[in-house]
Amino acid sequence: MVHVGVLGAGFMGGTHVRALAKIPGATVVGVSSQSASKAAALAQEVGAEPFDDPMALINDPRVEAVSITLPSNLHKQYAVAALNAGKHVLVEKPMGLSVAECDEMIEAARQAGRLLMVAMVLRHWPEYVALARVVRSGELGKPLSATAFRLCTAPAWSPWFSNPELTGGEVLDLHIHDLDLLNWLFGTPTRLFSRGQRGAHGGWDAALTVLDYNGVACFAEGNAMMPEGYPFTMALRVLCEKGVVEYTLRAGGEQVDSIDAGANSLLIYEPGAAPRPVEHEGGDGYYNELAAFVESVRSGQPPEQGAAEQGRLAVQTALAARQSIESGTAVAL
Fold first, then answer.
1. Residue-wise pLDDT tens digits, 261-286
2. Structural domain includes residue 290
3. Which candidate among 100, 118, 192, 317 keeps its CA 20 to 30 Å from the CA of 45?
4. CB pairs under 8 A, 24+ apart, for 89-92?
5. Residue 166 is part of which domain span?
6. Claim to verify: residue 251 and residue 201 sit in the same structural domain
């Protein structure tokens, strides 16, 4: 049994706690939050103990692994503290707000001899996993280009989302998902060029980025400035020599927590043929992500997806996009 403490009781903290409660071989020991009422309510759902001090939960001898779902500016602080305390760590994206923060976390994990995994959920999302499998199989030939986008209204789960000093802006909080997705498919971009728009609170909350992966031209849009009522929408289309594979999801509401009420499709389009669906596993990406973390802790083997170096590259790519927006020039990685 893997005993986990969850730091944070907001939307993502609740997502982690409820997923862990369903995973065989995992149990939630405690939940911490600055809000005692939120911690108590979430902990009660799964028979765990509420904590108002994250360090008390980290240092609890019952806890062997920690899931960090706190505001992004706190990821490095508490990841390093948990690793130094001998705990395995799953940290929500973005891994950190700078590459230096990521490096400090990686070094802390190395010195502690503990697992450090980054919660990049698209790497565990069934439809994205199946799409990646199609591209890598070669059945459609060589990939030529890819387009990804993620569109929503401004997140309203917590007031801290409106502060770019805490989030890094939507380039680091939203756009990073698709930048990581493209890195997963094609490696490290050689260069990128990005343009953006500032949101109401001063952060870069909309970004359009063109990336070059050694000849595979990719485009990604991350936009949290859509008007009220616009449904959460995400998609990935990969054009290959022999056809196209495309995943689209339009949720039933404005945010990702409404995806179950929406509609999605994963189809292959080939010349002269009717579109055909791609078979994929069922389940939930968040559950799959937490189950992979639990299995890595149990087995002692590093995760195939969500490795710390992948999380670091995602931050590096997102920061390069922000640098390009602010400088008006292309940026090499």
1. 667 899 999 999 999 999 998 889 99
2. no
3. 118
4. 89/65, 89/114, 89/115, 89/116, 89/117, 90/16, 90/65, 90/66, 90/117, 90/118, 90/119, 90/290, 90/293, 90/306, 91/67, 91/116, 91/117, 91/118, 91/119, 91/311, 92/12, 92/68, 92/118, 92/119
5. 122-285+317-332
6. yes
Both 245 and 149 in a single domain?
yes
Type of residue found at 282: G
Give the residue among 53, 56, 96, 58 at the shortest CA–CA distance from 75.
96
Domain boundary at 119, 150, 178, which? 119
Residue reference for tokens 């998609």:
235
From CA 155, how far away is CA 61, in angstroms rounded?
35
Rounded CA separation 11/321 (Å): 27
Collapsing DSSP to helix, strand or coil, 195 comes out as: strand
Residues 85-131 pLDDT 10s: 999 999 999 999 999 999 999 999 999 999 999 999 999 999 999 99
**In this structure, are residues 201 and 109 in contact, taking their beta carbons and an 8 Å threshold?**
no
3-state secondary structure of 159: helix
pLDDT by residue (tens digit) across 27-53?
999 999 989 999 999 999 999 999 999
Same domain, 30 and 60: yes
Alpha carbon distance 76, 136 (integer Å)? 34
CA angle 319–325–330, rounded 5-degree value: 85
Peptide bond into 94 cis (omega under 30): yes
Number of domains in the chain: 2
State how far Cα 89 lies from the chain centre.
Answer: 15
Same domain, 232 and 257: yes
Report residue 167's pLDDT band, with 50, 70 and 90 as the boundaries: confident
Q: Are residues 193 and 44 in the same domain?
A: no
